[in-house]
Amino acid sequence: MTTVGTGNHAYDVISDWAKVPEGWNAPMAAVTVDSQDRIYGFNRGEHGVIVFGKDGNYLSDWGETKFAFPHAIYADPDDNIWIVDRDAGQIYKYTTDGKLLMTIGEKGFRSDTGADNSVFSSSGYGEVTHGGGPFNLPAGIAVAANGDIFVADGYANCEVHRFSADGKHLKSWGSPGSGPGEFTLPHGAWVDSKGQVLIADRENNRIQVFSQDGDFISQWPSEMIGPAVVYIDKDDIAYVAEHNGGMFSILTMEGETIERWGGMEFRSCHGVS
Q1: CA 227, CA 240: separation in Å to the nearest integer?
Q2: 241 close to 270: Cβ distance less than 8 angstroms
Q3: What pLDDT, in 10s, does the model give residues 107-141?
Q4: Which of 88, 184, 236, 245 could cross-link with 68 by S-S, CB 3.0 to 4.6 Å?
């Protein structure tokens, strides 16, 4: 068995942890964990959401054939399961057993960002020339303590969108580029214990930190290569999956690296919880 990391951040790699029923194709795009330690895998195969126990045993599944392109999944503190369906251009809120509670976004809609949605590159679709509002291939989601929703809208946009708990669009921020408050594929989102919004700015190789009103606070200096998602635990330790480098980083809330591993072991790291 392979071990990665050291000290308090040493982990055994269990490559066959997820025990899906025989014959299932289960390419997982993202993962999340609810308050009962159930693990939800957002799957690009036939079974949209697959639920596992802590030991990796299959518990249930739901959402079969419902999703255009599974991209992100997030369990909020009330165990609502939030899903980002990138190509549908929609955000869904579900119960833990798959009952749909709310939908944000019009299916198939693409906001005007100057991007050509028919041209794909490693950094997204076409060339984004300006922000376009919700949505143009959204990528990530986070929910604040008051229920407000933050969506990283990155593959053919350059904005973060804030919604009220009932799905009303409150504001958007961001523009194309590499300066403070600018994005090149905002891909993942998290709200930390201080209420700050962290955005994985993937193609700029950084994490940016904002107030919930979109005011730039800081960015993390690091050696990350294409950070896709960020997860922060109860001890305010950050875990970042690096899509472009096949790496995984553990950092302080100041962005200082505690542990980092990967390269040959992983490919296109895309989710963490």
Answers
A1: 6
A2: yes
A3: 999 999 999 988 887 678 889 999 999 999 999 99
A4: 88
Average pLDDT over residues 65-73: 92
Comparing CA positions, the residue from 247, 255, 197, 212 lying closest to residue 227 is: 247
Whether the CB-CB separation of 50 and 29 falls below 8 Å is answered with no
Q: For the domain 78-262, what is the CATH code?
A: 2.120.10.30
> Residue 29: enclosing H or E segment and its boundaries?
strand 28-33
Query: pTM of the prediction?
Result: 0.96
For tokens 């998290």, the residue is 190
Q: What is the DSSP string of 172-241?
A: EE-EESSSTTEESSEEEEEE-TTSPEEEEEGGGTEEEEE-TT--EEEE-----SSEEEEEE-TTS-EEEE
pLDDT band at 221 (very low <50, low <70, confident <90, very high): confident
Q: What residues contact residue 249 under an 8 Å CB cut-off, 6+ apart? A: 222, 224, 227, 239, 240, 242, 257, 259, 260
pLDDT tens-place string over residues 70-91: 999 999 999 999 999 999 999 9
107-114 contact pairs (CB < 8 A, 24+): 109/135, 110/135, 110/136, 110/137, 110/156, 111/135, 111/136, 111/157, 113/156, 113/157, 113/158
